Fold these 2 entries.
Entry 1:
Amino acid sequence: MNPRAITRPGDPAWQASAASGPFTTDRDWLAFHPSPRRPRFVPPVGSVDAHCHVFGPGAQFPYAPERRYTPCDAPAGKLFGLRDYLGFERNVIVQATCHGSDNRALVDALEAAEGRARGVATVTASVSERELAALGEAGVRGVRFNFVKRLVDTTPRELLLQIARRVAPRGWHVVIYFEAAELPELYDFFASLPTTVVVDHMGRPDVSKPVDGPEFELFVKLMRQHPNIWSKVSCPDRLSKAGPPDYGDVVPFARRIVESFPDRVLWGTDWPHPNLKSHMPDDGALVDFIPKAAATATLQRQLLIDNPLRLYWSR
Ligand code: 0GY
């Protein structure tokens, strides 16, 4: 299988295939949507899907021994087919935990994208300067620190700080993934990071709580007090209790962040949507969430073009 072969929704080859090579997809794994609809919202020309992943294929790019899940394969060519189908021009591909700190699938996807993708890698504190330089050459512009306990073992903060100090001079940022309940304990550490910081999925708020209640207000305060902290207003499908297709209970949270910090927000599909249990989102419906979060053409342009280009394509 050629992981780079561009395959769009509607092509017979779009359908998900099980993990290849010596791997077996988890029995309860939900594969990406078999037939996403075209979005009604037309992204402005040049839009960036700034949070998505590639998985394998396992036969070429083995899943990590320490992984917590084994997905279906989701190669670069399908990601690029979805990009075209949804009306986007570029991707930011985030290293998924199922590949650990082996960034080969990510680097291959970045090379295949011919400048239309940038990457966020996972590295350990033992990474060499030469390895960081090679990742940068391929298009990596950030590293991800994951604090979600169901996904990874804990890395000591001192080691994370060492990594952050080493990537900052390269103009790279740090992407952080955590659950809202953990924020009080992590707040000072996040505030101490010496570079731009991008929070995944608005810090995963509990959207059954009030948008102006203390939990989400702590996240808003983190962003307000630290102008180097950005947020992705992504993954309504992970956060919503109301569910698809509108994910209406997530809208006030996304709007609050977009309208308060319009020059520090990003949006992404999260394709191929690892670890969802309740349902698999239709990627077209996710694109239709964008104008609810960013209600004006100016906000949409900042969210989808200006901000991601500044963070990922200007260095
Ligand atoms: C996401 C969310 C998840 C997984 C990962 O790298 C990953 O495995 O990020 C999740 O399970 O919540 O952003 O893709």
Entry 2:
Amino acid sequence: MVRVIMLSPPGAGKGTHGKWLTSQTGAAHISAGDILRAEVARGSDVGREVAAYTARGDLVPDDLIFRILAPAVVAAARDTGGYVLDGFPRTMPQALRAAEFGHDVGLASNAVIYLTAPEEELVSRLLDRAERDGRDDDSLAVIRHRLAVFAKETAPLVDYYRSRGILLELSTDRPEEEVQADLRDWLESRGLLPVTTNHVAPADAEPNHAAGVATTSTLPRDDQPANLA
Ligand code: ADP
């Protein structure tokens, strides 16, 4: 079963593709941002504690996010056999602590999906989302700040996971079906999804979805996920 981390700058599609992965695998989708927004909306103690950070586009403290997410991950894995973690970990201390915790409880991550898109595309997607969903951290100034926070705090995780051989880098600057076809192929190749002989392609999809793929599966397949994280 997949125990996957979605790693991407704001707007690159970790929510969209994370939900799709859940639909394909049955592993629970756990969105750090959704959980925090729900706490803020409820006006809980945690919500009051994190509201100022999320509104500014700053990361909430590592301890707090870990306290909230660790039980959610354990529960998800118990209920569904895996997890799709959207938005966590996001700092090196979070990643190291998550790896230690995952190792201790036998729930180490076995895949990290790193989604990319050009910065101006990210900004324009987030501004569109602001019109649809009215998220208060989707203003231009806060979007720019969140992108800067990603570059400083989260981007270092890419090399960390790449060196563990569990990272797939995918451009999302192309149709969703192409991204998902590549995701499926990679997960199948790692034994994380049952191999389908007959992919259901949308009616208007190109027959050869692999054209123009910008993927980097960084280590050979025989790198053992069991040794990871
Ligand atoms: P996006 O990736 O679009 O910026 P998310 O919904 O994933 O949005 O996160 C929204 C906000 O929640 C972040 O800007 C941050 O304030 C907080 N947050 C989410 N995940 C984490 C995390 N792992 N660590 C610290 N803060 C987080």
